[in-house]
Design goal:
Elements lengths: L2 H13 L25 E5 L3 H12 L3 E5 L3 H8 L9 H5 L4 E4 L4 H9 L15 E4 L5 H12 L14 E4 L2 E2 L1 H7 L2 E6 L2 H6 L1 H4 L3 E8 L3 H29 L4 H8 L32 H17 L5 H18 L8 H4 L7
Parallel strand pairs: 1-2, 1-3, 3-4, 4-5, 7-8
Antiparallel strand pairs: 6-7
GO cellular component, one term: mitochondrion
Pathway: Amino-acid degradation; L-valine degradation
Catalytic activity: 3-hydroxy-2-methylpropanoate + NAD(+) = 2-methyl-3-oxopropanoate + NADH + H(+)
Length: 347
């Protein structure tokens, strides 16, 4: 665990009100709220910058969580506050009705689900009836893991169901959205399972969108991030050209945000124009260039699989990989503005 991540988690925990791990969130639940028994015991695997806040919001909403992370220090923050932790994903599965995973890569997902002492270790039967993967990975891996899970048998039949089910449910909203509980979940898999788990999603987020069959949630997420990456490149290039032609960034911002160029990326990649955005804090926080490059690579590979030519994807991937090579991998992806414009900021 990096020092910066440790400080981030410690600071977040220190800022929590006393007993906040055990209180019911007034944002969505009253003291009379009832969590369905089939959702009550949740195993959460992967408590990094995103997963930490998602898990904490479930705890505040009244769910009984069990935590696992490869990083022992990350787990210690929970165990010190009375939340059970386990050394392996398999041990988490033994005590959980529902599993939520929030992991960095497809290989991490495969390791947690099908690796040694993974969730499916030892084969049948399984206790969790529902396994939710909130990671951003390729649709093919999501579908492959889902198919493997569907071949397992449940220890105890749940209603008419005797086999577990998986939902792929990547999120949009970033660390700030995870902390505030404002995430959007894009969910693929069995619609019946999606409906049964909707209250759990809404304890971590504000919106849920059902995307269809298994893998479609993952597909939706990489398409969303592809569009976001390309729009950020367009906005950054436009600011660069505008300033080079003598128009200040603040004037362009007013124009963009009151006309047809308005979009999420026009929140502003130019330092000093707007407060509270990564560009005004040296591109710290937000969604890293490294993660954007990873997601663009997933989009490019998915395009190749279906035989679709994606020239903007290829160019965006090249630019973001170049940014990472130049040491900007942990900077917010809006730092791509600097790829085009390295001179004085004309506000």
């Amino acid at each position: 665990m990096s020092i910066s991540r440790a400080k981030f988690l410690l600071k977040t925990l220190n800022n929590l009100k006393p007993n906040s791990f055990h209180s019911i969130s007034s944002r969505r639940y009253s003291s009379e709220s009832h969590i369905p028994s089939h959702l009550e015991k949740v195993g959460f695997i992967g408590v990094g910058n995103m997963g930490f806040h998602m898990a904490n919001n479930l705890i505040k909403a009244g769910y009984q969580l069990t935590i696992h992370d490869k990083d022992l220090n990350a787990m210690k923050h929970f165990s010190d506050n009375g939340i059970p932790t386990k050394e392996t994903p398999f041990e988490v599965a033994e005590t959980s009705d529902v599993i939520v995973t929030m992991l960095p890569t497809s290989s991490n997902v495969l390791e947690v689900y099908t690796g040694q002492y993974g969730l499916l270790h030892g084969g049948n039967p399984l206790r969790p009836w529902l396994l939710i993967d909130a990671s951003t990975i390729d649709p093919q891996t999501s579908r492959r893991v889902s198919a493997t899970i569907s071949e397992c048998i449940l220890k105890e039949k749940r209603g008419h169901r005797d086999r577990p089910v998986m939902l792929d449910a990547p999120v949009s909203g970033g660390v700030l959205g995870a902390e505030a509980g404002n995430l959007t979940f894009m969910v693929g898999g069995l619609e019946e399972a999606y409906m049964a788990a909707e209250s759990l999603f809404l304890s971590m987020g504000k919106h849920t969108i059902y995307c269809g069959r298994s893998g479609n949630g993952s597909a939706a997420k990489i398409c969303n991030n592809l569009a976001m990456a390309v729009s950020m490149l367009g906005v950054s290039e436009a600011f660069s050209l505008g300033q080079s032609l003598g128009i200040t960034a603040s004037t362009l911002t007013k124009i963009f945000n009151s006309s047809s160029a308005r979009c999420w990326s026009s929140y502003n990649p130019v330092p000093g124009v707007m407060e509270g955005v990564p560009s005004s804090r040296n591109y710290e926080g937000g969604f890293s260039s490294k993660l954007m490059a990873k997601d663009l690579k997933l989009a490019a590979e998915s395009g190749e699989e279906v035989g679709l030519e994606c020239p903007l994807t290829s160019q965006a991937l090249k630019i973001y990989m170049d940014l990472c090579d130049k040491g900007c991998d942990l900077k917010d992806f809006s730092c791509v503005f600097r790829h085009y414009y390295s001179g004085r900021d004309e506000l």
